[in-house]
Structure formats: structure tokens, C-alpha cells
Write a structure and sequence with these properties.
mainly beta; Protocatechuate 3,4-Dioxygenase, subunit A; 2 domains; five-stranded mixed beta sheet; 2 helices; about 40% strand; binds fe (ii) ion
Length: about 325
């Protein structure tokens, strides 16, 4: 842990490379414009996840196994690899739903379900901060009457002690969405618009997407009363995926005590930069992870005055 220095980046990096800390931060530029978000924009970011009009559909098999190593699709499963991750939160996004059970199933690359076994069916648990992640293949399409259903992933999400949310996830740009009776709904209880996510290709050739889930449940308080994106935000992290170094660009919109934390998918803190005294400004933090940090997904969290205001998913390459 070290206070940010107002010196040049070169000497700064030299300084931290000799220190025992794993991360440090400095202002990203004098007079950099900081765009604040309104409270309305921050509040809009937290809406209850909607049901899918088609419910669970006809192909659900009860009691699927827990998936191992975050892989819903085995390495030899034909298809385009995709990684879906996000966070499960309560209705006003003030609490993380730790240990939420996420039951996932979808069609294979050819548009077929395994109705006799559990291929492409399984459960994953959200971690202590509510984060979840799984890797699978891009689901194929299948005919529903004379129309192809868009590619979709089915979910049942259960928080301990609360009712189960059954819904489906779709992907932006899918030409079958407009004609689909469920995916085309854009208002009301079955509004699918926040369940159509974008996927972008990472440097490993896999497609990644983020889907946060907001459910009527009680979880672990995050110490916030809204998303508070008006207090601070993580703009970007690059390169992402990273290997030896990653630069995290963030902004703080008020004079505050600020912390940056990195968690692994099990919720274990793997790096932190705590209790920085920051003025409203853009900042840049360089993290040089330990060489033995396993490859995979991590989350950077930004805390302002001990309130977690934003997070960003990052990934360490396998080499
Ligand atoms: Fe389906």
C-alpha cells in the first residue's frame, strides 16, 4: 500500500517495482475532464431482471450437476467458445447475493438439447461478492414452429431462501430476435431488452459477455444505497486480457478515501490499494500481478469512502 505519487510515470513505475506493494495509482493527467453521471443514470442501471415470456421452455432437466472449473461445455464440445459473467444483486443493487445458485442449460451448436443426460446443463454458484462466471459454446438455433428461436441460454437463479427466477439470455445482432415471441418483447414483465447482451471477442478468440442479475432476495450488504456511479467509475483496464501488467483507469468525482481491490472468482482478494486520499480527478493504477497468479477471470472493485461504487471484469491470459 502506498500513497500515489505526483511524479513521472517512469520513475513511479521504477519505485513500485522495488516496493513490496502490488499496485499503486497516480493522477492520469492534470485538468483531465471528468464526466459525472447523474443519480438518475446510476439508478437506472439497477432494474430487476425480467422473466422470459417462454418461461423455462420444454427442455429443462431437473437436478443438473455442479459444473467444474467453470466449464459448462467440455473442451471438445463443437462450437464457438463464449464466457458469460456478472454479478447477482438484490433489487436496489445494494447487496451481493452470495452463493446464489445459477442453473444453466442450452442447445448445442446444432440446436439440439441433451434430453437424456446433462451435456450443456449444469449449476454454478455466485461467490461471496455475488460474482459468477462460466464458459460454454454459443448455442445453436432450433425451429419453434416455422421460426428459428434466436440463440439463447436458459437460467434458473435461486438465492438461498428466496423464489427462483426463470429466464433466458439472448445476444445482440441475432437476426432471429425480431420475429421471436419472447426475445422481441421490449416492455412489461417479460421485457427482454436487458437480457440481450453483446459479446466481444478477446485475444484468445473466445467471446465474452457480461450479464448482471438483479433478483428479489436478501444478500450481503455492499455498503451502498445505490450503484453510486456518480461517486466514481472504472473507465477501462488494458490490456485485457493481461499478462505482466494491467493499467486500470478510473475517476473519482468527489474528494474521498478511495480503494481499488482485485478479487478472484472465489471472492478472495488478490491485490489492493487502500485508503488513497483522492481529489476529483482521473487516475491510473498499474498492477503487476505476481508471476504465479493463475490465469482466468478477476474483478477490479472501486470503493469510494468504503462504498463499492463500480467494478470491472479483467482476465489473465494463460501465458
Ligand atoms: Fe431453449
Amino acid at each position: 500500500m502506498k500513497e500515489p505519487q505526483a511524479n513521472s510515470r517512469r520513475s513511479f513505475l521504477k519505485n513500485i517495482s522495488m516496493a513490496s506493494i502490488s499496485m499503486a495509482a497516480l493522477p492520469a493527467g492534470v485538468g483531465a475532464a471528468v464526466k459525472t453521471r447523474t443519480q438518475d443514470e446510476a439508478t437506472l442501471a439497477c432494474n430487476a431482471t425480467t422473466l422470459d415470456y417462454y418461461g423455462q421452455g420444454p427442455f429443462y432437466s431437473a437436478n443438473p450437476p455442479m459444473i467444474s472449473n467453470g466449464l459448462l461445455a467440455g473442451p471438445s464440445e463443437p462450437g464457438t467458445r463464449i464466457i458469460i459473467s456478472g454479478r447477482v444483486m438484490n433489487l436496489d443493487c445494494t447487496e451481493a447475493i452470495a452463493n446464489a445458485e445459477i442453473d444453466i442449460w442450452h442447445a448445442n451448436d446444432a440446436g439440439q438439447y441433451d434430453n437424456s443426460g446433462y451435456n450443456l446443463r449444469g449449476k454454478v454458484l455466485a461467490n461471496a461478492q455475488g460474482f459468477y462466471s462460466f464458459e460454454t459454446i454459443w448455442p445453436g438455433k432450433y425451429l419453434n414452429g416455422n421460426q428459428y428461436r434466436p440463440s439463447h441460454i436458459h437460467f434458473k437463479i435461486s438465492a438461498p431462501g428466496f423464489s427462483t427466477l426463470t429466464t433466458q439470455l439472448y445476444f445482440q445482432g441475432d437476426s432471429s430476435i425480431p420475429a421471436d415471441a419472447a426475445a422481441s418483447i421490449s416492455s412489461g414483465v417479460y421485457d427482454a431488452s436487458s437480457r440481450i447482451i453483446s459479446l466481444s471477442q478477446n485475444s484468445n478468440g473466445k467471446y465474452e459477455g457480461t450479464w448482471d442479475v438483479v433478483v428479489d432476495a436478501q444478500g450481503v450488504p455492499l455498503g451502498i444505497d445505490s450503484l453510486h456511479l456518480n461517486k466514481g467509475i472504472i473507465y477501462s483496464a488494458s490490456p485485457n486480457p493481461f499478462w505482466e501488467e494491467i493499467e486500470i483507469n478510473y475517476g473519482v468525482f468527489e474528494k474521498a478515501k478511495v480503494s481499488l481491490l482485485v478479487f478472484d472468482m472465489q471472492g478472495k482478494e488478490v491485490a489492493n490499494l487502500k485508503d488513497l486520499q483522492h481529489s476529483p480527478e482521473k487516475y491510473s493504477a498499474i498492477w503487476n500481478p505476481p508471476a504465479n497468479l493463475p490465469s482466468g477471470l478477476y474483478f477490479v472493485a472501486l470503493k469510494v469512502n468504503d462504498m463499492q461504487v463500480h467494478y470491472l471484469k479483467i482476465a489473465r491470459k494463460s501465458s
